[in-house]
Structures are given as structure tokens and as C-alpha cells.
Design a protein that fits this description.
heterohexamer; A: alpha+beta; Ribosomal Protein S5, domain 2; 6-stranded mixed β-sheet; 4-stranded antiparallel β-sheet; 12 strands; 28% helix; D: alpha+beta; 30% strand
Amino acid sequence: MVEIVPRLLKDQLLKLAEKNDRIDGREQYQRRNVDLEVNVLTNAEGSAKVVWDGTIVYAGVKFEIRTPWPDRPTEGSLMCGAELRPVANLKYEPGPPSAESIELGRVVDRGIRESGCINMEELCIVPGEKVWGVMLDIHVMSDKGNIFDACALAGIAALKTAIVPAERFDVGDDHPLPVSKLPIMASYRKVGGRFVYDPCEEEELGGDERVHITLGDDGHVHSLQKGLKGTFSTSEFAEIFANANEQANELREMVEEKVN
Amino acid sequence: MVEIVPRLLKDQLLKLAEKNDRIDGREQYQRRNVDLEVNVLTNAEGSAKVVWDGTIVYAGVKFEIRTPWPDRPTEGSLMCGAELRPVANLKYEPGPPSAESIELGRVVDRGIRESGCINMEELCIVPGEKVWGVMLDIHVMSDKGNIFDACALAGIAALKTAIVPAERFDVGDDHPLPVSKLPIMASYRKVGGRFVYDPCEEEELGGDERVHITLGDDGHVHSLQKGLKGTFSTSEFAEIFANANEQANELREMVEEKVN
Amino acid sequence: MVEIVPRLLKDQLLKLAEKNDRIDGREQYQRRNVDLEVNVLTNAEGSAKVVWDGTIVYAGVKFEIRTPWPDRPTEGSLMCGAELRPVANLKYEPGPPSAESIELGRVVDRGIRESGCINMEELCIVPGEKVWGVMLDIHVMSDKGNIFDACALAGIAALKTAIVPAERFDVGDDHPLPVSKLPIMASYRKVGGRFVYDPCEEEELGGDERVHITLGDDGHVHSLQKGLKGTFSTSEFAEIFANANEQANELREMVEEKVN
Amino acid sequence: MGGYGDVELIAKDGKRLDGRLADELRPITIEVGVLPAARGSCRMTWGLNIAEVAVYGPMEAHPRKIQRPDRAVLDVRYNMAPFSTSDRIRPGYNRRSREISKVTAEALESIVMVEMFPRSKIRVEIEILCAEAGTRCCGITAAAVALADAGIPMKDMLVSVAAGKINDVVVLDLDKAEDNYGQADLPVGIMPNTEEIAFLQMDGDLSPEEFDLAMEYNMKAAKEIHKLQINALKSKYDGGVE
Amino acid sequence: MGGYGDVELIAKDGKRLDGRLADELRPITIEVGVLPAARGSCRMTWGLNIAEVAVYGPMEAHPRKIQRPDRAVLDVRYNMAPFSTSDRIRPGYNRRSREISKVTAEALESIVMVEMFPRSKIRVEIEILCAEAGTRCCGITAAAVALADAGIPMKDMLVSVAAGKINDVVVLDLDKAEDNYGQADLPVGIMPNTEEIAFLQMDGDLSPEEFDLAMEYNMKAAKEIHKLQINALKSKYDGGVE
Amino acid sequence: MGGYGDVELIAKDGKRLDGRLADELRPITIEVGVLPAARGSCRMTWGLNIAEVAVYGPMEAHPRKIQRPDRAVLDVRYNMAPFSTSDRIRPGYNRRSREISKVTAEALESIVMVEMFPRSKIRVEIEILCAEAGTRCCGITAAAVALADAGIPMKDMLVSVAAGKINDVVVLDLDKAEDNYGQADLPVGIMPNTEEIAFLQMDGDLSPEEFDLAMEYNMKAAKEIHKLQINALKSKYDGGVE
């Protein structure tokens, strides 16, 4: 992907930052409008659609029965994939997954996996023989900024609404997938010299490094990722770390409301 | 593949069409000379070579024993591959299969498969355990126009002469592969504004859309495919559909003669 | 890979050859300094590092338990891979293995395999059920000429020091991999019109065809390969064939010294 | 086609398992401008199928070798989301999706005024989010609307629809069960004003008479679907429906 | 992280299985100029880890589309040799190595004076020859030294090191066993002079307090490792150590 | 080599299983101009082997980076058809076919007057339709004829042939069974006029004396095969045989 650094945009963002303003008029830590819908895909066992301003993401959950790994005979598995497909923006080109796409998928995966929200032991059907493999796929349909948070939100909401299709596989009754926690990601971008929350498309184009923080229900951190060229100080990080907790709590409430 | 539309050639073809003439002097629905030879490849269990004027195609059949799909425990399988390899023409480049190559393979496959010429139940050895997998590979060696029809013809002739190598696999006596029907493809190209049968190389280069029709012994249609940019009316189609039946009958006779 | 034929370098090499001199002052059949170290990699079951002047190569051996091929139920297997990775020289680019890389791997593999140094029957654990798969990987870290000989040397030395990890796989006691012979490769390059042994980087850049000879303990030849554009006469070949024997004997002594 | 003619798919009263008559379509909705990042977009639901299409361009075609000196090329991708089917699909293009992408591109090139944009490329991204038989028709029909939404000049609209055969009866618009046990499928792409055919595939078994009836059903249905296309475009641009 | 908090990794006297204290590093050696074909190179052993890094360039960046008009790009490959781990690894890049290559490149671009070489490319090849937990930190730290050895101008050195959590205790520099059964891992890349952070990842579970302690351990360790980097470079260029 | 020296392949009368003497070739036929789409072509049968070769060019070499300023490059592909062997081969190039393609190209570049066509490319497509041991020799020998048929200027013809060892006896031109249980294989490419060697491979086990005998057999056979090459070319261009 060609990186075109629009000098004029960078200057504009810098001037706005000096006045503590943003290109779309938001405050430094203000989120855009977010809408979450669940059970939107007939053929998925769990699904969610996130409309995060102009960013649109679908997530779907499928199940398979597999043989457990020999060293963990009583554990199922979770696979989480998120791909940057060319449908989502002019800038994404067809071809094998780019490094950007791989990073997105792995960061979203770690946030969900490391929170421990799914107890892998509960996915066991017959120890050593049959366990559930949970496959969460996240599909970005429109990228107008901050797809990381939108993907993470759609992903956990889809898992939270998923029904294990035990009847179809002839291994008991259908039942909800046990998801005990709601990890939430909050993403920050350095724009005009200071970090802002929930960057929009222009802020991503004219901004510098980004930081992704995934927090659990208890405020513990489960995943961090710094992306792109750029550096920051520990005090800068401490400030956004604190803000991330607030953002996560608000979004977690939204998920809880929608899935129940 | 670069598409060079030779304007002069197009003009020439248009003028010829106005006089109901063709670049090689044939009539609108006249076929070039076609020669079919069977059992030409020692290591294939069935084989055929088609010399369709300057277009040359080999087809070979191999067998394997496989486990049937769980939902169809008494059925074997047919795999049919045709590849546009760089040997066949200056215009074909090495690399992964092009969209053109994939289309060729799938259209030839559908014509044979959908005719029902092979009863998949007759490929069962032990229900739920062992069935025959039939693998038909078609190799285009020289492309001077109309490889679709040449591939389809070589393919069905190779199947028709194939011997199931049961002895080598220790599952009974060798016996002919049961092939109950002879699906035949007829291909048309819009050249100078009207459809012609069996386009030659220049007609393909300077022509527009193409239509491929596969017909069974009883005149039923088993596969249709329109390719390339261009449109046609239902009455245009009705005319070539009727002609296709005549062409198929002639070629079917040739196959019957050669394989018995 | 772009091949830049440096005309000036070719001229210089030709003039040197006329005086029977080489660009680094060596004689026609003189080897550069070679150093061999074994057991250098903790996680490999056998390993070696060859520092052949500026050319540096690591080799490591791993084992797996696999099912034998049905037609050879009492034989294990040896897989030998050598890859030209971009770390080794500015001229190697990332991407799928080049033809050069494939040739290197296959020539090194044949030299070792065809010498019969490993009796595949001795890799049998349970006939028809479990055999050892030996996986030798050779990693070129720095290429300053003659990587073929360096890879072959590192490869056989790594095998010769390998311990079969039977305990870890629960199939008996750990024991040395039985390696009964020491095949050694000697490589020649036509430079300025005559063959020289052990070409350096400049000689490879400005030279013509190359010949690789692998010889066993008894002076029998196990593998030959001519590479690149160029021809030679039988008498030219006879001379380097005779020399190869001397080179192989010297290097074989070095291996024997280091591994015991 | 599955070709299992012995599964009963039509009741004695002539109605199909979901209550439709032989020449009746499944319910269809069309919405435009649904993907903010795209220049034009369309969401279509057709029975349980869901397709969303984004259009980008015209833009310079690269790599160079795909450029045509006299027209634009359509770079079309048909893709099924991993969760769109009963069994998960591995991400990435397979042979089926590459063939569908090719014939879809050729159909759309037949209606887009490609001569207006030499050396350029128009990207059409068709994503199938839920698949229940008939996704290629759904994708083509939605793609034509998305191209119109993007303001790309076109000679005519394009409607794709399929008729088929079940229990030896020709019917319109096979659903999942009908497709699994059906005997033939005839998807076409029709220009509703000229009635010309820009897309045609077929597999299975049809007598010439059955073929004619299937084409008749398709023609009639194309007119119906065309109205829904027009309404969707109007409701965006005029703020109301026909 | 494995997350098996019930495997005892810290003895009653506070010492870890290999005898280290909570904030103690494994033994480290650094050597420069080890790969004759490269413009700059570095070999680093860190515990049982072995990484060797080659730097090539700056050279013209191609293909053209990766060129940046205002700076050099770093083309970084992190690769584990097939024999570097207990089970053999198939050669070639996987998703993990591609992500590590990306974040490593971005960290190094933050310290290299990339503006000095517009339109060019600097190749950094990180080969892990033996892997025992912490290879990405080892690779980044060695790569920074190899860049310096190649004479590439840099704003500051870069040190990467990780703290983590085992048995609910924050510790520095997890080894293989600790990584397998650990509860968190926080690798960072620190510019030793400014204390700025150029690389940051983390997975597992850390309370805010645990996070602060882990960062404190990392900062202190970075200073120690930085001395070893300087010594290695000095011993090559001055012919002696500090 | 299989290396199973205990399978009896030579009878007491010194004859091989198919009745040949030690230095006898299998039957060979050569035909030129067999592929109408190609500029030059050749069909060769050698025992049960069938190879057909097409030559295209010289044409501009692209992509640019494969161009050589002072000569043509030969773009050679050796490919085995899926049905050419007892067990079906998956289509596409594997490591074996890529190595054979490389050494074949290098052998042919040694005889073609490549200096006459700077910056250009000559495509040589070798298709093995039936394989019964010795396909690389068959492909190289046929490719040289196809190049001549295409009118490409050459310094000399090229003949490839192999001798080997079975039951501890050196023999010429191993067939399938002999190859499976053989002890050595020495394929060479010989310029029949100068007796220079342009292609050489070998695997197995040969003493220096055995090697010399095998080379002697190869040299003699190359002269025989060269006559067949000449006859095939003459019968096309002169309308008759020598």
C-alpha cells in the first residue's frame, strides 16, 4: 500500500491540536456515534453488526468439532480472524493478507483470548476425543477510521450471542456459548502531537503512531499494541491508559444491554 | 494477459460477415477438420488426442481409491481439470491458473458431469469405505481456436475408453469405466455482428462474446456459458441452440465410431 | 535476480588466469581457510557451524516419528533442505524459493542421500507403523562464495553429531544417529577460461559454469551437477574429478577430527 | 445440481415447500448508499441471501498491463464471507468465486459505458454475507445498482435471476432446499429495457421446451426486480419511492 | 500466555527456577561484525536465545510503490530457523513472524534518521537460530546494534526487553518455562537516552499496579542492556571495551 | 536411485529384461513441426516416453528485470502432465521440475547463439505426456530439435542421454524398472560435433572406472541420436530423409 503523507492535512491537524480541537469537532477523548446490532446473520451461530459512524463491521461465529491437542486433551479452541478486504476502502488492495491485515486480526484475537472470557475447558465434549472449535470471523465492510475498536466490539458481541449447535452435530442440546467476560478495546492515535481517542479517517491519514488497549471487566489490561513509526513517553501512556478504562466501561454497558 | 483489439482485423471480419463469409472461407456453421485418436498414452487408464485443425488437445484418465463423503457413502467422484498452459500459445503465460483457465476447466467439467454420463453409484467399491475417484486431466498443446470444444471432445472420449484398474488396487478385475452418455459441446463466437460456429484463432482475436452449449444424446441441454463482454437477443440464441444440436450429433457419431 | 555481468571484472579474471593467478592470490586448487564447529545449537538434536572464509553456514537436525510409506514399511526417511535466504547476501531477495535455492538444496541432498551414509532401515522403530524422519536444515547466513561446499560440509557434520531423541518420544533410549560414511562435496568454477576450486565471491560474479562433485570415503562419486551456461570437455572434467578426491580427503579428516 | 428428483419439493396443490407458486420470487429488498467508504453501494436481501456491494472508481488502472487503451476494465470480486454458509468457508478466493467474478465482470462490462473511461479501472466488490442459493444473481443485480449509485454511466440496468427444475417441473428462483435436490439451474442477466442477455449460465438437464419456459419465467421476473432497483435508487435521490 | 498459575515457578526464598531474582536478567552477550557479507551485523545470545542480524543498504527502494518521497523505509524480516525450536518449524514466514517483522520495522523506523535517505530502503534480516522465550526482544535489540554497525545514522539506540507475571508475581525477562506457564508478558522497546517507548506489546493479565512495576523493571533493565550494546560497538571500533 | 542391487535385471546371457545389450538404446522416434501454434516444435518418443516441445520467440523479455543487455535468456519449463505417470501428478511445478527446467535452460543457453538477441527471451515449453525413466534427457534432446525447427541460430546441436548402473554393471539408457532398482544414473548433454558437455548430473554410486565406461557409452549413443535429430529436421525441410 502506498503511503501518501498529505503535508497539508498534517499541518491542519497540528493547528487544530494546538487549539485542542479535532477535524470533526470532537473533543480529545470523545467517541463518535456507535450502534450495535446482534443476531443479524442467519447462517452464523452468533453474529453482530457494528456501525461505528461510517465504519461498518460484521462478525460471525461458526463451530466445528475437532480432536483436541494431545497435551491439552480437555480444551477446545478459539480462532479469531479479521481481514482487511478491498470492499472496505479504496486503499485496500486484493491479494494475500497484508501485514496490516495480519496485525489487525492478531491484536483483536489477543484481546479476546487473553481476557479469559471463554474457558476452553467448557468446550470439551469427550476428553481426548472431541472438543468444540469456535471460529470467529470479522468482516470489515466500510472503513472510515478506527476499525480496531469496531472489530473488537463486533467480535465479543457475536461470541456473547452465539449458540453452540450441539444438536446439528448430534452431541446434545443446543446451548449458549459460555462467555464470562467482556473485554473491550480502546484505540488512540497521535494526531498533531497529542493522542486522541477513536480516530476518524482523516486523523488516521495525517496522524502518527497508534496504541490499542484491551481492558477486562475488572480494569485489568489484557492486550497492548503500539503500531506505526513514532514514540511516546510513559506519562503520555499513563494518561490514555486511564482514559481507556472509562471508554471500555461505557461500551461494555452497551454490549450488555444489547445481548440480553 | 494483455488484450490487444486489432482494429484492422475487426474491420476485416465485419466486412466478411456482411458478405456472410469467414476469414478462412468457411460457412457460418461449418466445422473445421477434426481428428480423434484414442488410447494414445501408455500410463493413463484412458486417453484421447484431438487434432481440431491446428488445435491439439490430449486427455488422460487416472483412478484413485478414496473414502466417500459421509453424506454420500455409496458414491464415487469425478474430477475434471483443463489447464491453459504456456505450451499452447504465445499468449498464455506461466503462473497460477488464470481466470480464463479456471473458466475452461469448470465449463468442460459441468458439461460432462451434468449430463449424468457417469453414475456415481457405480463407482462404489465398499459403501462408506472405498469408492473410485476418477481424475480426468485435459492438456491443451496447441491453441489455434475453439479449445473448449476440443477439450470437451477429448475429455468424453478419454472417459469412454478408460479401464478401471481394479487389479492394480487389489479390488477385483479390471473393467471398462461405465459411461452411459456422450455429452458434446458446441461453441459459438460473435464475429462481425453474427454468431459463427467453431471460431478459428483470428475470429477469437477479433470477435466479441462467446457461447458454449453442451448437449446430451437426447438433445437436452446440460450446460451453458456465455463468456466475455457483449450481449445477444433470445432469437439469436434460439438459432445457435438449434444448430448446436446438429453439430453435437455429428461429433457424437465420430466418438462412437472411434471408441468401439 | 538481475545478473549483472561486470565486463571489467571478467577481463581482470582472464588476465589473472593467463598468469595462473587468482584474484585473492590463491593457487588454482587452493582452498580458503575453513573452520568447523559442532553442537552449536541447543534446540537442534545435531548441529554444525561452518565458517568458510567469509561464508557462514549453520546446519541443524530435528527428528519426528512418522508412518512409513506402504511400499517401504521398514525404512525411515531423510529430508534435507538448504535455503538461500535474504540474510546471506544483498543479492538474495525475499519471496518463494528461487530456482537457485532449489538447486542448492537438491544437490546437497543428493550428495548426502546417495552416499548411503544413513541406512534407512536403521531408522525403523515399529515396522509398518513408526519410523524416524530425519530433517536436516541448512541455513546460509553469509555468502562470500562457494556455499555449496559449505552447506554440504555443515550438513554431514550436523548429521554425524545428531542424537536420536528417543526418550522424548517415549520409544527407548537416546542414541547417536548412525552415519556410516562421510560424503564430501568439492565445487569448481570456470574462471578466465580454466576451472578453479572453491571460488570466492568475485570469481562467482565474473565466472562461467560450475561443477559440483560429491565423493564418498572410497573415492566413488555419488553426485554430480553442472550449473549455469557454459560447456567443458571430458579432459577438463577428468582433471577436476581427480583433484576433487584430494580435497574431499582433506575435509573428511577435518570432520572426523571435530565430531569425535 | 444435486439431481435427486425423488425428494418431494412440490405439494399436490402445486405449491412449493415455502408456499410459493412455480413462477414466484422470494421476498426481495434493495437499499443503496449503505457503505460510507464506497463511491456507490447497495445492500440486497433476496430470501435469506444478503449481498452488499461497494463500487470504487473510475481510477487509473494498474498494473499497466491490465489497462485497455479504448475503455475501462471492471475489476470485480465476488466473495463469500466465512460465516455466510452452514459450514464455515476458508477466507480467500477459490475456483468457483474466481469464475463467478469473471462472468460477473463481463456481464457488467456489457452495460457500463466503458468507452468513456479509457485506461481506467472500476472496482466492484461483491460480498455475500448470508448464502441460501442464488447468490450470483443477487450479487450481479446488486452490483448493477451500486454502479448506478456511484454515478457510473450505463446503457441499461442489469437484472440477474434464475429459473430451474425440481420434481420435473420448471420453477423460478430456487431456494436452498430446491437447489440441493434440483435438476437444473438457469441463471441469466437481462437488460430490462432491451431484453438482451448479458449473462448466461446453466447446468443440469433441460429439454428445449423446459428451457423456453425457464427463460419466460426469468424474463417476467426480471421486470419485477427492475422496479425494485429503480425504487431503491429513487428513494435515495428523490427522497421517495415511485 | 499459557496462564497456568498453579505451576510453581518461584521458590520460597523468592528465587526463580534458574536462581534469578524477580528483577534479574538472563546472561547476555553481544558481538558485532559477525557476518562478512552484510554491511552491518550483530550476534546476540540472551539466555539460550541466539539471534544474528544482517543489515544491507541504504539502497534504492523497489518495487517503486514501496518508496516514500520523504524518507527511507525499513524492510525488516524476523525469521525463525527450522531448527530453532523444540519442534521443527516449516521454513517460510507465518502470521506471527509477519506481525513481529512489522512492529520491529516500525520501532526501528522511530530511531533511524530515515529522513536522510528519501526513496531508499534499508534491509534488516533477523534470524533466530535458537529460541527460548523472548526472541522478539533479542531480535530488536540486536537489530539496533547491527544498524549502528552498518553506520546508519540514528537518533538514539533502542533496547527491547520484557517483564511479565508468574505465580502472581511480576518478574523480569521470562525464560521458556516461565513463558509457558506465565500469566502476562510485556515486551517494550526503549530509547535509553530519552526513555521514550518505540515498541510496545502485551498480552495476559496485569492490574494497573502490576503494569507499573513491570514497566519499572523494563526501564532499569534497558539501561543495563544498553551498556552491553555500547561495549560491543566499542570493542569493534576502538579495539577495546569501556 | 532406489539402490536395490539384489533385484535381477540382467540375465546370464548379458541381456537386459527387455532384451537389450548393455550399450543399447531403447527405440527412438523424432518428428518436427507437430504443434501448429508454436514457432518451432518437436515430438520425441523414447521407449515409452513421450515428450512434446514448443518454442516461442525470440520476443522482448519481460518483466524487465530478467533482461540481459548482452544476450537472450531462455525461459524453459519442463512439465509432467498429470496423467504421464502411474500415480497422477498434481498440476503445477514442483521442486524437481523447477530444477530440471533450470539445468535444461542452462544447457540450451550453451548452444543457442544467445548473443544475437540481446534483451530478448526465447520460450521453450517441454511437456512430458508419458514418463518411463529418462524424461529429462528426452526433453533436452527434443528441445534442441524444436529450437532448430524454430530457426533459432545454434553453435551445435545438443543430445542428452544417460548411462547408469544395475546389478553392478554399467548400462546405457535405463528404463523404468532399471531406474527403480538401479544403482546410479549419469545423464549428460553432449554437443555432437565438439563432444563438449553442456549438461551433467549424476546420482548414485560409481567408481572412477565405472564413470569412464558410462561416459563412453553416452558419447557413442549421442552420435546415434544425433543422426535421428538430423533426419527429422531434414524430412521436414527437404521433404525426405538422409
